[in-house]
Design a protein that fits this description.
Strand content: under 5%
Number of strands: 0
Distance between the termini: 29 Å
Order of helices and strands: HHHHHHHHHHH
Radius of gyration: 17 Å
């Protein structure tokens, strides 16, 4: 049954809006907003397929909002990003299309370990980043083909930790500052979200009413979060990324 036919109270809509607002702010800073929104969507009565599809809709609003703010403030040069945007979109579409055909459970078991490693990396970021950049630096085109396609595919197929993976890649392989890495990450995250959403649109699982309401909350929350990224910088981003990586890892391990 379509959940839009349910007689949900105004309080449930308000709770979903508030949840999306908080998730949008956190996601703009460190990623992991789905860790907050998906359980709430499931608690509201959506099936797992509906929750994932609707979450992709409302998540698009948050990542697009943050991307818009970062581009407006000059933190992102879109001319240099088009190859990465294009390859991320291709990867995300392929990942979303193959959800039903690939066994993602094996990959999901490895994600907590990878995210814990990312958290450790961010903890030692000032000491580790210069060494990694000097050894493994990539060009924009190489980054687009290798990182854009692979992480975009991962986001379309599974999703948890995508923002942290993109940020880590920008820090290690492109030598970006933490603010710049976060800003560019949001653009690619928005790309993969929108690409996956286009595929989900044909699945019939999106609950549009809830998705739009939560999308408004996501947009507003992401505006606040993206402003905090620019004004607070590394002092805010590093601890938030570490916390969200560990939180996602714990949740995934608990589910497994």
């Amino acid at each position: 049954m379509d959940l839009t036919l349910f007689d949900l109270s105004i309080w449930i809509y308000l709770a979903l809006f508030a949840t999306a607002f908080i998730a949008g702010a956190i996601d703009a800073i460190a990623g992991g907003g789905g860790l907050i929104t998906v359980p709430v969507l499931l608690a509201a009565g959506l099936s797992p397929a509906q929750a994932l599809a609707t979450n992709k809709l409302q998540g698009c609003a948050g990542t697009l909002s943050a991307s818009y703010h970062f581009i407006k403030k000059g933190q992102v040069d879109l001319k240099k990003m088009w190859p990465a945007i294009f390859m991320t979109a291709i990867g995300a579409v392929l990942g979303t299309l193959l959800i039903s055909y690939l066994d993602s459970s094996l990959l999901l078991k490895a994600v907590p370990i990878i995210l814990i490693a990312v958290a450790i990396f961010f903890f030692f970021l000032p000491k580790v980043q210069p060494y990694l950049v000097s050894k493994f630096a990539l060009s924009h085109l190489q980054f687009a083909v290798i990182i854009g396609t692979s992480i975009g595919f991962y986001d379309g197929l599974i999703g948890p930790g995508t923002g942290a993976f993109f940020s880590t890649a920008y820090l290690c392989l492109m030598g970006f500052t933490l603010i710049s890495a976060t800003a560019h990450t949001k653009v690619l995250n928005a790309t993969s979200n929108v690409s996956s959403l286009l595929v989900f649109t044909f699945s019939g699982h999106i609950i549009w009413t809830l998705g739009i309401i939560m999308g408004i909350g996501q947009w507003l929350g992401a505006q606040i979060g993206s402003r905090l990224v620019i004004t607070k910088g590394a002092k805010l981003i590093r601890p938030m990324v570490i916390i969200m990586c560990l939180a996602i890892s714990i949740k995934l391990l608990f589910n497994q």
